[in-house]
Amino acid sequence: MDATLFRNVRLFDGLADTLAEGVELLVEGDRIKEVADRPITSATARVIDAGGRTLMPGLIDAHVHAYGSEADLGRLERLPRSLQALQAAERLRQSLQRGFTTIRDAGGADWGLAIACETGLIAGPRLFYPGRALSPTGGHGDMRPNTMLDQFCGCCAPAMALGVIADGVDEVRKAVRGELKRGAHAIKIMASGGVASPSDPIYALQYSDEEIACAVWEAKAWRSYVLAHAYTPESIHRAVRLGVRSIEHANLIDAPTAAFMAEREAFAVPTLVTYDALEEEGPALGLPAASMAKLASVKEAGLGSLEILARAGVRMAFGSDLLGTMHRRQSDEFVIRRQVLPAAEVLRSATSTAAALLKQEGALGVVAPGALADLILVDGDPLADIGVLTGQGERIPFVMKGGVAMIDRLAA
């Protein structure tokens, strides 16, 4: 059994508000065997002297679109799936380089991509995915040109790389069951309008109570859950009332709705970095003018939404939601959140809180005996300067996933 012994580390365990000094850690196989504040001995382990670097859980991004290689989602739908898969493999490799050992795709990734990550065919993070996101006709996931609406039903439309159109309870039920059969760990629905879709207003409610309740029931029947794209208080409250567990974005949330989320123990996954990126780079990357016009209202409310959610006690997981070449800004979300939230809370959003969202408490997002050995070494102290996590992994010289060193620049 392969083993690795880390010495001379400062430890962020994914839970505490401070770093532990002088810690040693032993990995055996794919699990953490021992964590101690005294010397650990092993006759077979590779010994890594961390030189005082910070050891912490591998990062988790809970809102990624692995197949989102274009900012113009209409153009993305016209690309061959084979090309999208190759582009997705590169995006996943880049995420791993930045220290993300787990991602939750939020629409588009499939079981083939997950198997490629799991078997090592491609070097990427652990991949949790909901399959294609469910959208009603004209909703946030309907990227068909208007001329196509009468030519193809939603389920048979060409491409539909990130979503599938399902109208009515029966179609929703069939779509949910289909995605679960294909290995989806959760189900995503569109509950309000969005930025990237050019035709639906942000305030638009999407899906009826009956359709949302159907999706929730079918997911729970598989011991799974539903995540919902939602911006406005009305869309968020309705989704949570009907049993949705994870609200994506939530920029326009108000205090009463946040309190209701906390009462129902729902999670939020803000994705503020994507609005900064879209504002600066969207037009050049082909984001339609109609989408740019909708961007201002949600971007302006972003930081305020973090404060509202935090005051209510809503658990917030880390998300980025970046498209195309903007994916390089994935870790900038740390710095944006740090403007209004304590550093430890921001770090937990990408470790233990995100693991709880994924129903992986104790296995991911923590450094503790029995947890999976997903670990990163960081140059510097992310609690003192969270910016050490930004960039393309320049200050993350070592990344381990399941006890295997995926990136090792310690000897360089």
From TrEMBL:
GO MF annotation list: hydrolase activity, acting on carbon-nitrogen (but not peptide) bonds
Domain of life: Bacteria
InterPro entries xref list: Amidohydro-rel, Metal-dep_hydrolase_composite, Metal_Hydrolase, Metallo-dep_Hydrolase, OTAase-like
CDD domains: Met_dep_hydrolase_A
Pfam families: Amidohydro_1
Segments forming domain Amidohydrolase-related: 54-402
Record protein name field: Imidazolonepropionase
Organism: Belnapia rosea
